[in-house]
Amino acid sequence: MTEDAERANPHAEAVRELASAMAKVAVPAALVTIAVAAGVATLVAGTAGLYGALVGGAVALGSSLATIVMMRQSADLPVMLVMAVALGGYAFKLVVLLVVLAVLRDVDVLHTYSLGLTLLATVMVWAAAEVVGFRRTDLPTVVPNSR
Predict the structure, then answer these.
(1) In this structure, are residues 122 and 61 in contact, taking their beta carbons and an 8 Å threshold?
(2) What does the alpha-carbon distance between residue 65 and residue 70 come to, in Å, rounded to a whole number?
(3) What is the DSSP string of 61-128?
(4) Using CA atoms, how far apart are residues 40 and 115, in angstroms rounded to an integer?
(5) Which of 21, 46, 98, 120 is the most core-located residue (most Cβ within 10 A)?
(6) Per-residue pLDDT tens for 7-26?
(7) Are 97 and 5 in contact (CB under 8 A)?
(8) For residues 119 and 30, is the Cβ–Cβ distance under 8 A?
(9) How many other CB atoms are there within 10 angstroms of residue 69's CB atom?
(10) Dist. CA 91–CA 107, nearest whole Å
(11) What is the pLDDT of residue 6?
């Protein structure tokens, strides 16, 4: 083996560290957001509001966790492919979220506004928490010697 092959991929290590740091901040923030939204939705719309908020929160949490999984799974790929996976994964997630919302729109047990607003709030809080997690790491934005 060559010396380069024996060394760990510094880009992959950085991506995995970022994924861990972002998840560490984002998961608790998302869970608190879902809990608050479920409480408010229950007060406003009763049981249907609770169910709508819980389903919206679960869909948003699953979608957001998929981002972390994609980061970890694609970390060893070349940098340009990592970016392609990120963009493709983002587009795919948007389509899935739209389909889920369209399918659940007519379910009577779910309060549609609670579902949509909880989903939106959770995704926005997750994104903000990812930024906080990213800024807390001491990793450089550009990783030297990466390929």
Answers:
(1) yes
(2) 9
(3) HHHHHHHHHHHHHHTTS-HHHHHHHHHHHHHHHHHHHHHHHHHHTT-TTS-HHHHHHHHHHHHHHHHH
(4) 12
(5) 21
(6) 578 778 888 999 999 999 99
(7) no
(8) no
(9) 12
(10) 25
(11) 42
Q: Is the pTM of this model over 0.90?
A: no
- State the number of CA atoms in the 13 A half-sphere of 19 facing the CB: 19
Amino acid at 55: V
Q: For 60-109, what is each residue's pLDDT tens digit?
A: 999 999 989 998 999 999 888 888 898 888 888 888 888 988 899 889 99
For residue 54, how far is the Cα from the chain centroid? Answer: 16
Q: Which two tokens stand for residue 137?
A: 């790491």
Contact of 134 with 21, CB cutoff 8 Å = yes
Query: Which tokens is 107 given?
Result: 């379910």
Length of the chain: 147
Split at pLDDT 50, 70, 90, the class of 146 is low
Distance set, CA 63 to CA 10, 23, 60, 91 (Å)? 27, 13, 5, 12
Other C-beta atoms closer than 10 Å to the C-beta of 128 total 13
